[in-house]
């Protein structure tokens, strides 16, 4: 590998080229040099195998970061488990609080219903029962009166 690199670097070195071909050969020389650096260093080679880049700077620009993100890394199992954990921590307490909030409301409704039934049956007025139940339902379900509970 070292011998092939030296042979190619001498062939494409910008100082060995004419003025006309210097820029094109300079790009080829840079590619050859970068390839040799990656292949000769085990740490860089591992980075290149995993991420597709082996630069010490990380992502030099936004395009490289986008390409890295599109390589399927976001579909890993750990990322999905992390998302589920975050949602569980954020959503489950809200659901529990909502359920706990409705329990006292249901108890109050039942107490009001039984109280109204007892008073109405003692009074003996059955027609008033329907009107009272309808009015009570409107009162309890009215969101503007929720602060009065």
From TrEMBL:
The keyword Zinc does not apply. It comes from the Eukaryota. Residues 1-52 form the J domain. Keywords: Membrane, Transmembrane, Transmembrane helix. The keyword Secreted does not apply. SUPFAM superfamilies: Chaperone J-domain. InterPro entries: DjlA_DnaK_co-chaperone, DnaJ_domain, J_dom_sf. PROSITE patterns: DNAJ_2. The chain crosses the membrane at residues 77-97. This is Molecular chaperone DnaJ.
